[in-house]
Amino acid sequence: SFPQTERHISIQTKLKGLEMLADLDGGEYSSSLNLFCSFMSLSGRKSCPLCPEEKFKACYSHKLRRHLQNLHWKVYVELQGQRMCICHLPCRNLKPSLSGDQVSGRHVAHYHCVVCSVTIARKTDMISHLKRHINKGETEASYSGTAPSGHAYEIMKELGTNVQLLPNHTTPQKSDTYFNRKMKSNRQLVFCSLAVLTEERNPLECLDAFGATGIMGLQWAKHLRNAIKVTITDISDTCVKMIKENCKLNHIRVDGCPRGPRGPDSEVEGVPIATVEVAKMDANVILHLRAFDYIHLDPYGTAVNYLDAAFRNVRNLGIISVTSTDTSSLYAKSPNVTLRHYGCHIVRTEYYREVAARMVVATVARAAGRCNKGIEVLLAVALEHFVLVVVRVLRGPTQADESAKKLRKLVHCQWCEERLFLKQGNMVDDTLPCNCHGTSQYMDDIQPLVKTLICESECTTLKSFVHGPSALTNQEMGSQKTTDDLGWNDPLESWKRKTGEESGSVVKKLKSDVSLEHPPFYYSIHRHSIRGMNMPKLNKFLQYLTEAGFRVSRTHFDPTGVRTDATLLKFKSVLTKYSVPTYTNATATQKSVSTETTT
């Protein structure tokens, strides 16, 4: 098994701890500090346990005590009574010199994080690092070590339970022993639901079907002791081996599965505080083979593939907790996956997390109903990283029918966010208490923009005007009646045109235009204006381009922009043709004034 190593010596709770490291009281060294025993000399001089020999030479006890007090003990970062004193040992890589020479560099002073064992040089960076741990709920210490095989590992402590973690434990695709620190709140909620059940009856047979590191089942066994019988399973050999090592780390005896004589791997030093059964088995297999009072499902992703097996053998009034981490499908980011896994059509709403929780509850209820069982929802939580649903199982077809009656369809208005549950047995009825589906009363302010977008998408000016009432007046786009006569009064009523010969020709022209390639980008009429010339009004200029045989429309990107398939040369030629010199009006005025004077 992996040897249990202590945290770094720079992390202490009292100054006495540093003094004991330097043996200032003349005591004997413990076996865990043999690495630092070599700094003692026969002359009575002692070296600093946190500084290399070249930085602080061996000295007498009184001088070393002042050094520890004034440097290491006073320069620190603290978390919950644990002082992370500054360390000058070569724990970090050498800082290279300007020439890039690694040998000529110098060691950097640093701090060792009490939570994750990382080393950080700057004090302010360490404080920020600890704040991130606190925000994630990670405040218990962890420490690192090396296994006999030479592989590095980290030991993390959560709720009084120690677990070994491999370096790639945060990457599910690269590690079987996946561990997510952000799921601490999930593990605490699951533990609370189990603790409540133990008050009703015990002993309970509990299953952690996806053990990974075994942290969940070990917390159950360590804190609830004889009130439960814990079984931890996983399909991975690496996970099963790691779970057994973590059992020894917490003084918990391991029972093999299938049951039989215990081997040497199940023995722990001293008196075990609990017994855990560890098995290499697929979750669906063990759920079909044995009955349990409490079942926890926490696969990587969705748990829908294991619900039928879970409800098959769970005992009456037992509890099933389901953790779903497929937030992309639950939170409407992957609608096709949502339909595949949960049989639901959903859209992103302001209450999307509650929709996700209700969707998981509905899926659990359907799985229970297939086994002639009903459910009582005890807890439903939807947070950033997971959705947790805890239900009590009620046996019998009557209970199953009662649960099925609570499943309803939800109708949601995407305009005003109104929502309504359809009554059971109701036919397809999209009726909502709001009027958004029949009128555009809430969309009056953006109707011009919507019309412009539609015209721009088809590159036509037949129903186009600039978005915004002020822009409509300034640009002189013509009367509103002209647009209304084309049947485009309300953009939300399917944009139906009025009947007639004119509308029929419009439809034919639009169909032919849509088949053409959409003109990319647009030209600004002001950007290409001619100096000394008065440009035509924008509405007139669009008409001139259309008469020249080009596709043309306004664009919502720029109120003065023109989207057209004409080249820049053609665009400028039409603009030049219909522009009027600015001096024409001034000359005419001068002639009129001179005539009156003469008369």
From TrEMBL:
GO biological process: tRNA N2-guanine methylation
PROSITE patterns per UniProt: SAM_MT_TRM1 (PS51626), ZINC_FINGER_C2H2_1 (PS00028), ZINC_FINGER_C2H2_2 (PS50157)
Known catalytic reactions: guanosine(26) in tRNA + 2 S-adenosyl-L-methionine = N(2)-dimethylguanosine(26) in tRNA + 2 S-adenosyl-L-homocysteine + 2 H(+); guanosine(27) in tRNA(Tyr) + 2 S-adenosyl-L-methionine = N(2)-dimethylguanosine(27) in tRNA(Tyr) + 2 S-adenosyl-L-homocysteine + 2 H(+)
Keyword entries, A-Z: Isopeptide bond, Metal-binding, Methyltransferase, Nucleus, Phosphoprotein, RNA-binding, S-adenosyl-L-methionine, Transferase, tRNA processing, tRNA-binding, Ubl conjugation, Zinc, Zinc-finger
InterPro entries: SAM-dependent_MTases_sf (IPR029063), Trm1 (IPR002905), tRNA_met_Trm1_C (IPR042296), Znf_C2H2_type (IPR013087)
Gene3D superfamilies linked to this entry: N2,N2-dimethylguanosine tRNA methyltransferase, C-terminal domain (3.30.56.70), Vaccinia Virus protein VP39 (3.40.50.150)
GO molecular function, one term: tRNA (guanine(27)-N2)-dimethyltransferase activity
GO CC annotations, alphabetized: nucleolus
Protein's cellular compartments: Nucleus, Nucleolus
SMART domains: ZnF_C2H2 (SM00355)
Documented EC number(s): 2.1.1.216
Signal peptide start and end residues: none
Residue ranges of every copy of the C2H2-type domain listed in the record: 111-138
Major location (coarse): nucleus
One family name in Pfam for this protein: TRM
Stated family: Belongs to the class I-like SAM-binding methyltransferase superfamily. Trm1 family.
The protein's name: tRNA (guanine(26)-N(2))-dimethyltransferase
